[in-house]
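Example 395.
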Amino acid sequence: MRTQVAIVGAGPSGLLLGALLHKAGISAVIVEQRSADYVLGRIRAGVLEQTTVELLERAGVAERLHRDGLPHGGIELAFEGRLHRIDFKALTGKHVTVYGQTEVTRDLMDARTAAGLVTVYDAENVSVHGFDGNAPRVRFRKAGIEHEIACDFIAGCDGYHGVTRASVPAGAITGFEKVYPFGWLGVLADVPPVRDELVYANHERGFALCSQRSRTRSRYYLQCALDDQVERWTDAAFWDELRRRLPDEVAQGVTTGPAIEKSIAPLRSFVAEPMRFGRLFLAGDAAHIVPPTGAKGLNLAASDVGYLAEGLTEFYLDKRTAGIEAYSARCLGRIWKAERFSWWFTSLMHRFPETGAFGRKMQQAELEYLVGSAAGSRSLAENYVGLPMQQVVPG
Ligand code: FAD
Ligand code: DHB
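Predicted structure in complex with 3,4-dihydroxybenzoic acid:
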């Protein structure tokens, strides 16, 4: 098999890259180790920046997003029993769109099928070769048969635990990492959301987040211990703990119901530098992880592949290599800004066992500053809605 770009991983970054390349007339094959149903079953992000929506429009997969996505012009911050709105529209003129990662993935998968493009699911033993020379190849086994794809470039879109970053020689790559001493317990339930907008709550007992997928489906998160286990949380225990962490006026409005999904995710900040090794490019979670508090993971994955698609299009259509040479620096400029914001918002909203009473007071003082000053509110709003892509391109 031969293709121009071999993409490893069919998560949002691999699928969106495939769609953008197809629009530019560049051929690509996606190799994914799991089944399509498994990929669709992962409940993850829910907030899209305007930049991500524009990339999905460019890829021709934004019709359902425009119909069913919920535009949100602000968020609410809860602390000390009170609720404060941050008005994105007034502060930045922009909004975010609430539309689940599962739906983005489904739209991209459907468009791929409709265009007759090849995605190999259930690929075993995926490996990458030759990217430091001129003959990159991706190998895998499927149904007991060995396959090889020869290509011009490999895109590593295979997430944090993938094979592509692990295949780079150790001396050529540097990782920067912070692991947080807690996780998030998430619940998805078919109940109406408690508020029209998302509520981020700082509470003595730990962080809580009220999010949503639609007017009838809610997504809630609770900060939990790293060694906590989903099985220990009955639905009733989850709803009780959620209500304890919210101001009374919000808690009283929570509609409870059976959880249709419950999972625990650890929190981590991670960046790998650089993101290009000869003819291999890393994109999305394969190159970086943010703690989910700032809702940036999926948005960064989208902007990475936006830059990569642009660079590869320039290469094939104009015979220019400037875009692919600038890929890593362009992405990293944007990534470190999102890393800073995600780390800061995580530090502000969670209970850190080691910081004690002084740390709590500092969080309260900073939250008061944020909601009480135009500069503080604007900074939060600008970072949350996301920076436009061209603003972060160096040179
Ligand atoms: P992924 O979605 O991880 O996709 C990578 C794909 O590559 C997967 O389908 C995987 O099966 C495949 N793969 C892996 N290894 C191989 C291999 N060797 N060969 C072939 N294929 C391979 N972000 C938010 O903004 N908000 C959230 O609430 C949120 N919650 C999250 C919860 C969890 C548990 C995780 C892990 C992430 C969460 N994120 C969240 C982050 C967000 O979901 C990711 O940033 C986003 O999924 C990144 O997309 P991706 O395509 O780069 O990686
Ligand atoms: C969701 C997840 C987040 O991490 C976040 O900051 C906001 C919303 C969500 O899953 O809806």
